Inverse folding.
């Protein structure tokens, strides 16, 4: 790889062993990808917290050992300095307040809190959410980033027009220490043009509609770049958040364009870079119905668990949930977990939304979600969720059956104990 003098100096150890190990990782990673150089980044979003039984043996050797092994792929334990790039922690495995309800041990929560103190002292901001763009990390168009989390990456590339590939805990650890990431994939303009045209032949309006459309597109284009034609309604943050998460779950979509909506596609021609689409795919009522049915893995209408907030809920979604639960009580055989970033939870708490939800019998959680934590209430057999992503992953991860539907349908199921949603 073609390194600058400063990058070469970091690799040679002139700026400390931690940066030398980080540069060694980035060079090996970049060469494996065929990258010719690195690019500067000052925006890193990764996974640095360690709170699982599998890493206990590393934690016992100290947090420098954890970072060295898990975030630098280094057998050598190095003293980790302050991050060179602005860096934040994404979603974690345990809710710091509700860890007992999740079934986590006191030992694990102790490990997590120790890790947070260590990371905070090195400039890693503990956002603890899969939606860092909802709590202050909002890169600008053209900004080179190093982000993990598929739903965050697709939002970063598409809605914000910043540039990142789906990174891992090792590459983000190295990027945080060096302010560098391999220049390849979606960092390069030529790789960001659309490949498939999606013709919409049915209404796509509410959050559930956008989730269904995203789930359909992920299967249809796999890891290519879809371009939506004839969007029937202006989408907002919430709808695009769920659309992207669904497309990244059923497929490997990391970027899309909506002409007139997303920043790199003022026109259809701009979205494709003047090229013709490789394929034209129609999405109509029949495709919507088939996609809805594909997301339903349950047959028993008696539900045990309702999960709302994947990706993490916005303040508007928290208000809606509170509104739907006002003066109502969740069925005694059902548990409701509502997930939102900790920063948004503070606002929701101040607005009284959390009180309404907990008074109804629900729980407001932060920092994690069932797909990441692999933790559900004991004895759960049938779930319902407003998230196509959770409906896709949880049945396989937790060995449960699932229903997918709107927020309103999920709340009604939480209150009645029965799933009555319909396409």
């Amino acid at each position: 790889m073609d390194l600058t003098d400063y990058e070469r100096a970091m690799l040679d150890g002139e700026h400390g062993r931690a940066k030398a190990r980080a540069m060694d990782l980035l060079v090996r990673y970049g060469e494996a990808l065929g990258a010719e150089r690195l690019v500067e980044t000052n925006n890193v979003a990764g996974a640095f917290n360690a709170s699982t039984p599998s890493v206990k043996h590393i934690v016992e050797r100290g947090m420098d050992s954890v970072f060295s092994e898990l975030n630098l792929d280094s057998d050598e334990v190095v003293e980790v300095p302050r991050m060179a790039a602005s860096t934040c922690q994404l979603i974690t495995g345990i809710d710091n307040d509700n860890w007992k309800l999740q079934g986590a041990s006191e030992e694990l929560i102790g490990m997590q809190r120790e890790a947070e103190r260590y990371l905070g002292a090195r400039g890693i901001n503990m956002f603890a959410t899969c939606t860092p763009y909802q709590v202050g990390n909002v890169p600008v168009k053209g900004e080179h980033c190093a982000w993990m989390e598929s739903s965050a990456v697709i939002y970063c590339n598409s809605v914000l027009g910043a540039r990142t590939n789906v990174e891992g805990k090792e590459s983000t650890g190295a990027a945080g220490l060096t302010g560098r990431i391999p220049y390849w994939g979606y960092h390069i303009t030529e790789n960001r043009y659309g490949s498939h045209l999606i013709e919409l032949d049915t209404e796509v309006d509410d959050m559930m509609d956008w989730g269904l459309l995203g789930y359909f597109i992920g299967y249809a284009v796999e890891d290519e770049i879809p371009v939506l034609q004839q969007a029937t309604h202006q989408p907002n943050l919430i709808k695009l958040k769920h659309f992207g998460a669904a497309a990244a779950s059923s497929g490997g979509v990391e970027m899309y364009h909506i002409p007139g909506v997303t920043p790199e596609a003022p026109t259809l021609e701009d979205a494709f870079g003047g090229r013709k689409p490789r394929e034209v795919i129609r999405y109509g009522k029949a495709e919507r119905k088939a996609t809805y049915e594909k997301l339903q893995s349950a047959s028993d209408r008696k539900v045990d668990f309702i999960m709302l907030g994947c990706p993490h809920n916005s303040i508007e979604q928290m208000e809606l949930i509170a509104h739907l639960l006002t003066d109502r009580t969740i069925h005694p055989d059902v548990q409701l977990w509502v997930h939102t970033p900790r920063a948004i939870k503070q606002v929701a708490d101040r607005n009284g939304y959390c009180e309404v939800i907990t008074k109804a019998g629900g729980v407001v959680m932060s920092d994690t979600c069932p797909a990441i934590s692999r933790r559900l209430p004991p004895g759960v057999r049938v779930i319902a969720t407003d998230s196509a992503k959770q409906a896709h992953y949880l049945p396989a991860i937790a060995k449960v059956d699932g229903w997918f539907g709107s927020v309103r349908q999920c709340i009604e199921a939480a209150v009645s104990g029965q799933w009555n949603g319909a396409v």
Observations:
- The longest helix spans residues 17-33.
- The chain has a mean pLDDT of 95.
